[in-house]
User: Fold Chloramphenicol phosphotransferase from Rhizobium mulingense.
Amino acid sequence: MTHDSHAGQIIILNGAPRSGKSSIARAIQEEFEGPWINLGVDSYNAMTPKRYLPGIGLRPGGERPELEELIPFLYAALYESIAIHAGLGLNVVADLGHHDSYSRPLGILPDCARRLEGFSVLFVGVRCPIETIMQRREVAQEGRERLYLRATEEVSIPEPVQRWQDEVHRPGIYDMEVDTSVLTALECAEAIRQRLDLGIPEPSAFERIAGGR
Assistant:
């Protein structure tokens, strides 16, 4: 596949909430050469009307069927804007939580991958053991974090947290994976930089996902 040499590089970080994606995105913005625009779930949700939230951050489980018809359009618009940024030579890092566990499968990820055809996309699986995610949620008491479910004596891992862990890495086709319980955000960013320097494997993860194979 030919890539426009003037186009920006795209990095998609995919993982569960509190897995450390946004910290990696910040490290990339601070450390990498050139402008890296963050078009992830938080920045997109900041633009989404409150009554449609959590928007593209809707968790697995099919709990809000009334929101679901909108979500493929939100994702399509987000990915088209990623393509426009990259087409203008801006680099994009997007931290997202892709899953297909809606009240019925929506097939959003293959559609998104097809929208970035012809661009250089590094798809990174951001993994983190559920024990570490629970510790981070315990620590995160301030502000909006109070909304998160807490562990109780009876239920050590709330069901929605487990569902994220189970669903976010399907189909699990990535160009590379990082584990934020082992590496710092900066070390993850360095590993990503090395992968970009070596070149993205052919066919890339997004090319394979777009082809549905």
User: Anything to note?
Assistant: Residues 71-87 form the longest helix (17 residues).
